[in-house]
Predict the structure.
Amino acid sequence: MQKKLQLLTNLQALDTKLSSIEKAKGNLPYLVNEFSKEIEELTSELEVLKNDFDETKKDLNDSKTTIDESNTLLGKYKDQRGMVTNNKEYEALVNEMAYRENLVEELTLKISESNILLENKKELVDEKKTILEEKIASLAEKQQQLDAKLSETADEENKLAEKRNKLVAKIDKQLYNLYDRIYRSKNLIAVVPADEGHCGGCFTILPSQKLSELKRRDSIVQCDTCSRILIYSFEDEGK
Ligand SMILES: [Zn+2]
């Protein structure tokens, strides 16, 4: 049991070192992650805006084509008008001409509206593009800083991680799971000293029964308040 307690103490010490290295990276990993997410969102927003722009543009071109076709037809109808022999045909021709003239008028109006719309949409696309480019530049900068920090600490981190793997292999699974659960939920501190009669994590005074349990060192003893694993006089322990 003493060996188990010693292993847990060593594991906590290693994890504390690893987490302080992680802390030294500051908010760089967070920022890199945030910028990446923002870039992803902006890219899809831009995609939607571009599609919208293209659709309006296509609409405008369709209108232009219809106007051209109508004008050609109107020219033909004017020529035919002089050759019509009966009233019915004449009426049909005049109706058709009126329809085409209306259409040209409507579409001409629509085109001038679409031109304004297109201009606004283009402005929006350009605006988003600029923001996106800025974000991409910021991401590159933060990524570079993070990479530099990572390469500074990579060696130490790798060594510690290797040590940790070896250590974890010696600890039985159930006990490691207990440690891991407390470590994650209790602010990265799972194993605390209890030498002074209180829990080294939450400082709750330990009842005498708990203390004698601890002194026997034949079981894993947890704090009743914070559940952390208590270690009694681990520094005196014979190596
Ligand atoms: Zn506690």
